[in-house]
Amino acid sequence: MLSIGEFSSRCGLSAKMLRSYAAAGLLVPAAVDAWSGYRYYSTGQLHQARIIALLRRAGIAVDDIASFFAHPDAIQLDHWEREIVQASAARRQALAEARAALASGRTPSSTRAIIGTKGSDVTSTLVAGTTTHRGGREINQDAVLVADGLFAVADGVGGLAAGEVASRLALDTLDAAFALDRSIAGLLHAYHEANQAVWRRADREEATMGTTLVALAMTTDTAAVALHAGDSRLYRLRNGRLDQLTHDHTVIAELLRAGEISEAEAQTHPHRYVLTRAIGVDPDVDVDYAGVSCKSGDRLLLCTDGLFKALSADDVKAVLAARAEPQESADELVKSAVERGSEDNVTAMVIDVRQQPVLVR
Ligand code: MN
After folding, report:
1. In angstroms, what is the span from residue 224 Cα to ligand 1's centroid?
2. Max Cα separation, the chain?
3. Entry pTM
4. How far is CA 341 from CA 135, 309, 345, 348, in A?
5. CATH domain 2-67 topology
6. I need a labelling partner for 144 at 20 to 30 A (CA). Which of 11, 39, 117, 173 fits?
7. Tens digits of per-residue pLDDT, 233-284?
8. Residue 276 CA, ligand 1 centroid: distance in Å
């Protein structure tokens, strides 16, 4: 028997990692001392532990490693190899585009992320266009993030510059944490890290600070996942039909969902825009998340309330359906909302799902 310390130093996995693996059903301690809770491993577990350490170095998510060991099959290694080649191709393509943009001095109009759909060889490209405007406000407290396989919008609240700080910090933290673990567990962890970062910052500066957050992430184990807090929204346009895929976390939306008030009453309710959930106002925050079906031809919209309070769902649908390029759609949506006199900041991120031939060499 090896103590957790000895085992950790011999397999190269930290004690903290070993605990999280055990939670995922991987490398469960051979014995746990009933009195002290101390964990012991057998020398026979070293073999698996070293393979896990190597798979982690290859960037494979913990949950994927756990399901691999549940039914070990070398074919899975081929799948991972192909995913790595695709991800690497996507990174090289982005680098080449950055190089071209720098050389030409032209602003790239869109950002692409190549996503693999789990269990199939179909690869989609996501093409995003983003616009944000301060609208009728002095400063813009909305923030946007377009990263590799991660798209997000945040609407900061708080006095002075606090809202601006909150929305940017939440998105940057989400991005940095998700980059370390692209599984769904990694995404949820990143969401909680984002909450903690804003909450600690507000605490340190003794400021009231918070932000909404809506994100669409390409996870390694569940394909596309949406998660959100607050009243920023995700919509999907498919075959001419616009669906709102998120539920607002506002007093009014919760009352409507509970059937306690009518649509008409909702229009005049004094607390209609009060948020019931936001990032950074408590040390812990609940999360709503769900897998999102993304098919070639779909068009997704992430936006802040400044957009949908100024434009009706029909207006939004008409613009999304009319414009060919996501950047044009985003520009047009924000322009219309600002022209209608939106008093709030306005942000739109339009993402197209396009089929793309798989690069296999
Ligand atoms: Mn807003």
Report:
1. 25
2. 71
3. 0.67
4. 8, 11, 11, 16
5. Multidrug-efflux Transporter Regulator; Chain: A; Domain 2 (1.10.1660)
6. 117
7. 999 999 999 999 999 999 989 888 888 888 888 888 888 788 999 999 999 9
8. 14
